[in-house]
Specification:
The complex is a heterodimer of chains A (about 280) and B (about 325). Chain A has about 280 residues and is mainly α. Chain B has a single domain, classed as MetI-like (MetI-like fold, Orthogonal Bundle), CATH 1.10.3720. Helices cover about 75% and strands about 0% of the residues of chain B. In chain B, strands 1-2 form a two-stranded antiparallel ribbon. In chain B, helix 5 crosses helix 11 and helix 9 runs antiparallel to helix 10. Chain B is globular. The chains are: A mainly alpha (about 280), B mainly alpha (about 325).
Amino acid sequence: MTSLVARRRIVDVASKILMGAATAIGVFFLFWIIWTTAVNGISGMHWDLFTKDTPPPGINGYGLRNAFVGSLILLSLSMLIGVPIGVMGGTWLAEYGFHSRIANIVRFLNDIMLSAPSIEIGLFAYAIVVAPMGHFSAFAGSVALSVLMIPIIVRTTDEMLSLVGGDMREAAIALGAPKWVVITKVTWKAARPGILTGILIGLARITGETAPLLFTALNNQFFSADLFHPMANIPVVIFQFALSPYANWQQMAWAAAFITVMFVLVLSLVARWFLGRVQVPK
Amino acid sequence: MNGSDAAVRTEMGPVSEEPKSLGRTWRLSGDFFFHKAAVLGAFIAAAALFATVIAIAYDSRLSIQTFGIWKFLKSSDWDPVTQTFGSFPFIVGTLVSSTIAMVLGVPISFGIAVFIAEIAPAWIKRPVAGAIELLAAIPSIVYGLWGLLVFAPVFAKAEPWINNNIGAIPGIGLLFQGPPMGIGMLTAGIVLAIMVLPYISSIMRDVFMVVPSSLRESAYAMGATTWEVAWDIILPYTRSAVIGGIFLGLGRALGETMAVTFVIGNSNVLSTSLLMPGASIPSVLANEFTEATTPLYVSSLIYLGLILIAVTLVVRFLAVLLIRRLGRKEGAKT
């Protein structure tokens, strides 16, 4: 009997140690990645990164201005396409579809899209925008990125609107407000921190996306704000510069990676802050 | 009119008793357009999946016509010069790197989930859970950059040891022989394992938390240890969702592009050793797509993408289905 107790205790202690170790491994890699990105990124920081365009191969110098501007344009355009579609889709699910069969099918399809590899979405945007137009373009890149963020926004909007209590809706309806006014003035307002969380998470997800841009926006060595031509952007610049033999290019890749990671981490923290303000019904 | 709105209105009295004014038509048309916009949003969200599959299948038609299905799947020739294309090495590369990721990532994810849900004291729970979730926030290109420039050189130092020890074992030793380059199939698998940790462990943790405390506490009351509660009570109760979480991670690993492209070594020739370079479907797409010059070349690359979609779609379908099953079980009880 005592040996059985001893054995069980040993298994228990050993498993606790192993699980603690597993957690330590995960946390260790997080710090290792962030640490090296920060060290290399900060040492690669240079004022010219923000004021000059990317230098040609083999030429000394720094500059990422065209890529920063390109990424900002791409992200803004993706939000312009993705946010309205995502919020309206989520609103339909929560306010019109409820738990009907069709709404559950939409939720299911949306959940499958939620975990779609970004490279598939890139090929999709290539097939519907780049191939018919005949050349790569920033617009195609934004289509790809918006398709990636829509499922995230649909899902969070749906969940957050469902959290809004029925009493508020009923009060508004009792005042004679039509349904769309109830939704825009009452439920959206009540769910605002939650919906904003979804939008921020969506934005964080697409910020560092590289694979879909390889098939769509590609890259541009020069400054361009033309939506219908290839546009420089940070992720593809990191990809090309990291694999290059030039020291200054590799340094710029680290600096760009560091800025991207910081941007995404700040977005995630702000999203979490908004999420903390979501009022869960009692 | 549908749903609760209609129900509430009829309770309040017939709608027709409202005064007929300009405001009323304006309100109704507002309702009409808002509803249509919402329907459109939901339709786009739902149709995107089908549109993706159809568009990619359509763009790979040239390659499908040229090589057929079976021949493309089993052929190892990938030669842009002679315009012959086959997908076998890339399919194997995708499956092997993802398998390594699962073998390493699933036990670690399980450990993390149990640690957070059952073992960790409250004050450590939140920061640790947050840190693991941050792993998912790091863009895959950064994993690639770190994998190639930081992890690979370190790993190259460990490879001679792997060669001498694991490589010496008859049988599986064959998988672990090769020059210490730091990059290759095994490196890709390790980086993928780190990347899937947050996805698998957060699903596991979430479902572990919904296990009714009556189950858990009755086991503890019977004198069960933490490990016995985790393995014999919590895991069986959440099994379907746990498998779903694993499939979700597998779907991520199969389709991961940038990180793999950086560290897999990009060789189109199959090798028996995991220490040797290889290629996966996403990595060959990322590497060769912009260089593809002929329509058949482009179409063959998209055909590879179609195969990837077919595989990941099945995996994701099962993942979502399995994760939802636990939710339904919960819903039925309350």
